[in-house]
Structures are given as C-alpha cells and as structure tokens.
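Record Proteobacterial dedicated sortase system response regulator, 229 aa.
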Amino acid sequence: MSRTIAIVEDEPAIRANYEEALRRYGYEVAGFGERQSAMQAFALRLPDLVIIDVGLGDEPEGGFELCRHLRARSASLPILFLTARDSDLDVISGLRLGADDYLSKTISLPQLTARVTALFRRLDALRQPAAKEQVLSLRGLRLELERLRITWNGEEVPLTLTEFWMVHALARHPGHVRSREQLMREAEVEVDDATVTSHIKRIRRKFEAIDAGFDEIDTVHGAGYRWRP
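=>
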C-alpha cells in the first residue's frame, strides 16, 4: 500500500510542483490551499506525512496552528515545514510545536523527496525493535545510525533530521573542523550561513536541556564547527 502525503500550500503552482514530484516517487498526494479544508480532510483520515507552509492565505501563521492541531492528534505523524520564512524565530516556533523538520523553499525537489523518504525511514526504524546496527559512542553521546537516533547520557535528544545529520557530521570526526558548507551537504539542505548558525544554536540548546554543562561543540571562528576531540 502506497503512503499518503498531504501538502498544505496556498500557492497553486508551488503546490502542483510538489505534488507532481512526490507522485513520481509513488506516493499518493493530496493538496490543500488553506488550513480549513485540510483540517476537514484530516478529520476523516490522517495522511502518513504532512508538508505545511507557515503562511496560509490570510492566516500568516495558519501553518503553525495546523501543526499544533495535528501534533495533538498524533505524536508520531511526520510533519515537515517547507516555507520561504526561515527566520530563527519562525524555525524555533515550528520545532517547538512538534514539527520534525523545517526547510526553506529554496531546497530542490530531489532534496525534498530525499527528506520525505528519510522521515519515513526514521518512522519505520523507531517502530522496529532495536537491532544490531552501526553505533557511534563518544563520551556521553550515543548515535544510532540506522534508527536516526541520538542520546546524551542515556536520554534521547529530540533532534530534527537536519540536526541529526549535522551532529553526525561533527561527531564522526571529533576534533576536525566542519565548514558550514560541509554541514549543509551532510544534512542535504541549501540554506544561508545564518540558518546553519541557528541550527547549531538549537542543537546546543537541546543537549543543554539534558545536561546544563554540555560543551562538546566548539565554534571555530571563520572556519566552522567541531566536536570536541
């Protein structure tokens, strides 16, 4: 049975492009131009994944409201924000509401489909019992590659996919500096330097919420970031 994806985007041409790209990969896709029609459809049946724009018609934050509603109904439904609004405040707001990731509309369609596939992969992996897999352990860090899961001192860190791959890029080569371009390449995103900086800030905050003394990620000014050797 093919998986169903809902796209909630108020620009018809953009919505059509996303729908066509995802259908080529075998997904069943339903598109919605505003929040109310999407909520009416979701009341009958939830899709397997939802892609949401933040601004929907005359609702500048309609996407946030929809995300809040969906997350209250399902803790595991993959939710992906795809928007032209990529300010740090917007990103933090989306992630705090429970979105699995927040990507800029500058992302290419192949990158978008790869991110959707990765979200489904993570959902499947987390539903399966733990098995022997590739694990990276470093001090308090445990990174389970197959399950796309990271823990710090035994407690799971609630990272988005983008954040997971950035931590992976840093931690697999401790002490080696990773430039912003290298981190973007690892996470399969195309964003500006300020957005990469925002991702790193959020990653630090998530670890610090578990361990106030967390200081594993160094900023190397003018070069990038590194995981403490």
